[in-house]
Input
Amino acid sequence: MNYDEIFADALSALRQEGRYREFADIRRKCGNFPAATHFAGDETRDIKVWCSNDYLAMGQHPVVMAAMHEAIDTAGCGSGGTRNISGTTHYHVELEAELADLHGKEAALLFTSGYIANDASLSTLVRLLPGCVIFSDEMNHASMIDGIRHGRGPKRIWKHNDLKDLEAQLREYDSDTPKIVAFESVYSMDGDIAPIGEICDLAKSCNALTYLDEVHAVGLYGARGGGVAERDGVMDRVDVIEGTLAKGFGLMGGYIAASANIVDSIRSYASGFIFTTSLAPAIVAGALASVRHLKSSQAERESHRERSLTLKRRLVEAGFPVLDNPSHIIPVMVGEPVLCKELTDALMDRYGIYVQPINYPTVPRGTERIRLTPGPLHSDSDMDHLIDALNTLWSEMDLQRAA
Output
């Protein structure tokens, strides 16, 4: 057996389908983001980033940077171990308390990423609840899907944001059967938002727990950045809230917030938490400063919302096929993977605009797109440049405009 040939064939298949992933080698310019430097071989060039999940540019906020510098000077660089073996620093304890407060829960637990938070938490919950059935929205993120699979329990997939389908499936089980309804608030590729309160009402009527992924909403929505559940006044009705520190808060890491018993159970049983080195103190200190800042400051959220609404309006007025949604996500539909890659390559090569193509399996085949994420620091002139470039390329490539 020629192992290397098998791997080469697998990669060739991806290239032929137009969904081979290439990473842009960039370095963000601190204090000047969304400006960045693009490295291509021996050459460099200035670009503007239009696809970052650092939605509020908190990754370069002076308060965050100062906290990280201070933590390095105080505690050094690494945490030194797992949470159980010397890796629980005081920064970790403070941040978990701050996140519990943010979501109005008794406790919170930090993970090294949002992906691990979902994988470890969902799989552990299923294992701790014998016979538990998980009801998963069909558009849930890969991390939730993997967590459900790793729990090895029965699962049901319900139609996206379809309360009637969810209810019909829940009613197939008696009240004593352990059940978890797992869903997201903001779905990151289409940008639509779940009816959280109604899902919680339905789950409670069927004696089911609710598990809400708020990764694309924390920091951005709600009076203190607690997410869509806070904005809608339903945080207290959600049993487990999962979030990230890598998007609205601008750093890295993930977490859950829930009752003290749920959090302690996951802390005690989840191998994805127990057996991994904890986040570095500087990262945790930066996240702590970011969370505290966004609890009281509205400026970043207000500016972000205005920038998102402005770009959406301008793209629609220019005739681009923008997928309509109520969130900050701006999907512009292309519908063909090879053309989507050609478009983003041309944006980078000819205009210094970095947008990543979004192809299968991230989105269904035939719905390939670019996903724009304007932030508070994208200027009107940045938008002018982007729309002019898109207009030119859309015409040259004969891509479909909005009807």
Remarks:
- The two ends are 52 Å apart (CA to CA).
- The CA atoms of residues 29 and 291 lie 23 Å apart.
- Residues 299-317 form the longest helix (19 residues).
- The mean pLDDT is 97.
